[in-house]
Amino acid sequence: MSLIYHLVLVKRWQAWPKNTPYLPAEYDKDGFIHCTAGDELLLKVANRFCRQIEGDFVLLVIDTTKLSSPVKWEHYSDEVLDSTFPHIYGPIQPDAIVEVHQMQRTADGTFVGWSKS
């Protein structure tokens, strides 16, 4: 099993039809699903790209061995991050999502961890 992570706003996740392949709102624009791997990198990514977004988030834990969509590891670098990230080029099938966790944030929006939903 190879696990990667994807952050989703709770309101989008709850509105998504159950048992159907998932695509984030940004998929049409980006052409892939942004993911990350590793706990420390997840928090860096969450605070770099999602800290200013209001609302609650959940963390999807995805088993890449259950995906039918291809995963490509691609490099990204800016003033905060310099790493290789997994990108999913297609939808995430429901059975590939092995866990869902509620993200924890401070009052200023900083992501500090997650707990089981």
TrEMBL record:
<dbReference type="InterPro" id="IPR009297">
    <property type="entry name" value="DUF952"/>
</dbReference>
<dbReference type="Pfam" id="PF06108">
    <property type="entry name" value="DUF952"/>
</dbReference>
<protein>
    <recommendedName>
        <fullName>DUF952 domain-containing protein</fullName>
    </recommendedName>
</protein>
